[in-house]
UniProtKB/TrEMBL annotation:
Pfam families: PrmA. PANTHER family: PTHR47441, RELEASE FACTOR GLUTAMINE METHYLTRANSFERASE (PTHR47441:SF3). This is Methyltransferase small domain-containing protein. CDD domains: AdoMet_MTases (cd02440).
Length: 249
């Protein structure tokens, strides 16, 4: 049997070596246990864009929050960028738009924010006070934006992320491209065994599993219970629990 390894980024305090008691296997054919049989480790945070829109605010209240958040972003200028290559005001303004897109159910509301007397209630996925707190965390505490909204756009995936696992980086996508190239040249590798050490969000395991299709095996391992829970959440979201089984050994 051919065995191929990939390695996702993992925090420095995590070993990349497999610990049998915390080994999560995502695979076809070999594993007999489904995702539903996994013991509950930790409940992962639900990304903002997946939350139900159970909150509401009036257009004026939402406009006040947006004006405050925009002014706070503008006040940063290039200060963060100059000190540690952090985000400048331009990037923060784009992130504010993304935050609104995740938080507001009906995006047509954006065009109504400038209408002074509009008292329409807007359905939100987070309360207005939470939106204030989230943006304070982004600016004042320098919390990474992906942790603020709870997800990262990576390749054609939108992956749940949270504190305790690293955010998938764009350059990691090249590993998936390499896998796609090698399996296209060698069908034996497509049916082989692949291991993602330090899976984190499960990004590499999920992307490679989709490339392998109905063939092969992907084993995703991590020492972090948080990572295992988040990876399992992402696997379920992409409907891989039937062709890709998981087991906590």
């Amino acid at each position: 049997m051919k065995l191929s390894f990939t390695s996702a980024c993992c925090p420095s305090n995590f070993s990349i070596f497999t610990k049998p008691s915390l080994c999560m296997n995502l695979h076809r054919k070999v594993c007999s246990s489904s995702l539903s049989s996994l013991p509950t480790l930790l409940k992962p945070q639900v990304p903002l864009f997946l939350r139900p829109p159970v909150h509401s605010a009036t257009v004026p209240d939402l406009r006040n929050w947006h004006d405050w958040a925009k002014n706070l972003a503008s006040s940063v200028g290039t200060r963060f960028q100059d000190s540690d290559n952090g985000p400048d005001s331009s990037l923060l303004s784009r992130e504010l738009k993304w935050l609104m897109e995740d938080a507001i159910e009906d995006h047509s509301v954006f065009s109504q924010l400038g209408i002074g007397n509009n008292q329409t209630n807007v359905r939100l996925r987070a309360g207005i006070e939470e939106l204030y707190n989230l943006w304070k965390q982004r600016i004042e505490e320098r919390r990474p934006f992906q942790y603020v909204v709870g997800c990262e756009h990576w390749r054609d995936l939108v992956l749940s992320v949270q504190e305790g696992i690293l955010i998938p980086r764009p350059e990691t996508e090249h590993i998936v491209d390499l896998v796609a190239d090698v399996v296209s040249d060698d069908e034996g590798l497509r049916e082989g065994l692949w291991a993602d050490l330090g899976t984190g969000s499960g990004a590499l395991a999920i992307a490679i599993g989709r490339i392998l299709g109905s063939c092969g095996t992907v084993i995703a391992t991590d020492l972090s219970p948080i990572a295992l829970s988040v990876a399992a959440f992402n696997v379920r979201r992409y409907g891989l629990q039937k062709p890709l089984r998981m087991q906590l050994n």
